[in-house]
Specification:
It is a multi-pass membrane protein. Keywords: Membrane, Transmembrane, Transmembrane helix. It is globular, with a radius of gyration of 16 Å. The protein has helices at 2-10, 17-42, 46-67, 69-98, 103-125, 128-158. The protein has one domain. The protein starts with a helix and ends in an 11-residue tail after the last helix. With 169 residues, it is an all-alpha fold.
Length: 169
């Protein structure tokens, strides 16, 4: 949901969604994902723990940048580009690990890597075209992630596989 709302702003579909995303960024994208990561850690799921905790802290750091305009201003486009580049690299190597999860998680990580890459290029170059592309890629990422969470909840609730996630072999 957090990715979807921010991506609506980045794609310029709902330009004001960038301000509306702040509560989601801190609480749903941030705190809730860190909590999910800790549960995954307790279950022994290294991938889930790393992904959820890392992206939870991504959203918390994004919130911090957005509520402190002096920080983003001092960082400038090159600093924000470096921030996004770090997340692009992290997401790319998590995509390699996602190959051993399932098809839906892999698709989410491929699209998220492309989203971060477009936003990184946009930040470094100052190109709004890449920001818009990153926004549209983020919308696709969010839809895939929603499908994945929907399938996981439905399959667990019904105690059988009703919606495919294309398990790794």
């Amino acid at each position: 949901m957090t990715t979807f709302v921010l991506s609506l702003a980045n794609a310029n579909v709902v330009p004001t969604a960038g301000s509306a995303v702040l509560g989601l960024a801190l609480f749903y994208g941030g705190l809730a994902q860190v909590a999910a990561g800790l549960w995954e850690f307790a279950k022994g799921n290294t991938f889930g723990a790393t992904a959820f905790c890392s992206f939870g802290f991504f959203w918390a750091s994004f919130w911090w940048l957005e509520i402190n305009p002096d920080v983003a201003s001092k960082a400038g486009s090159a600093g924000v580009g470096a921030y996004l580049l770090g997340w692009t690299i992290f997401t790319a190597y998590m995509t390699v690990a996602a190959i051993r999860t399932n098809g839906v998680v892999l698709a989410v990580f491929v699209m998220l890597t492309l989203t971060f890459l477009a936003l990184t290029i946009g930040a470094f170059s100052g190109s709004t075209i890449f920001d818009r592309i990153g926004g549209w890629l983020g919308i696709i990422t969010a839809i895939l992630a929603w499908y994945g969470s929907f399938a996981t909840v439905v399959n667990a609730t019904w105690k059988r596989s009703l919606l495919p996630v294309w398990a790794a072999r």
